[in-house]
Amino acid sequence: MDFLNLQFIKSLVWINEAVAQGFGQRDVGGITLRNPIGTGSIADLLGRIIDFLIYVGAPILAIMVLWGGFQILTAAGEPEKFKTGQKTIIYAVVGYGIILISKGVEFVIRDLFR
Predict the structure, then answer these.
(1) Cβ proximity of 21 and 91 under 8 Å
(2) 3-class SS at 110?
(3) Is residue 41 a contact partner of residue 13, using CB atoms and an 8 Å limit?
(4) How would you class 11 by CB atoms within 10 Å of its CB: exposed for 0-12, middle for 13-18, buried for 19 or more?
(5) 19, 30, 46, 54: least surrounded by Cβ within 10 Å?
C-alpha cells in the first residue's frame, strides 16, 4: 500500500513538472496566460509556504513565550495559572518545532523525487 502511494505521488510530481516546464508565460490561441503562483513545481510552492511559516512563526513564538512567562510571573502562587503559563510556552515551542521539522521533510521529499 505504501509503495502504491509513493508511486502515485511521484506521478503527480512528474506530471506537474512536465506541465510546468515552460512556467511563466504561455501563449494559448493568441492570449498570453501567466502562471499565477509564480513557481515551476509543487515542491517550489511547498518550499515557499514553509519559508513563509518560518518567518511568520518566529515572532509569534517570541510573543507566546513572553505571554507564557507573564502568566507564570502573575500566577501569585496559584498552581493552575502557573500550569497555564507552562502549557502556553510548551505549545508554542512544539508548534514552531513542527514548522522547522516540516522544512526538513521538504528536503527529504525533494531528494526522493529527483
Answers:
(1) no
(2) helix
(3) yes
(4) exposed
(5) 30
Q: Which long-range contacts (CB under 8 A, 24 or more apart) does 86-91 make?
A: 88/64, 89/64, 89/65, 91/64
Give the tens place of pLDDT for each residue, 36-77: 777 777 778 888 899 999 999 999 999 999 999 999 999 988
Looking at residue 32, its pLDDT comes to 73
Residue in the block written with cell 528536503: 107
Q: How far apart are CA 24 and CA 21, in angstroms?
A: 9
- Report the alpha-carbon distance of residue 75 to residue 69 in Å, rounded: 10
Q: What is the mean pLDDT of residues 3-23?
A: 52
pLDDT digits (tens, 9 = 90+) for 70-97: 999 999 889 999 999 999 999 999 999 9
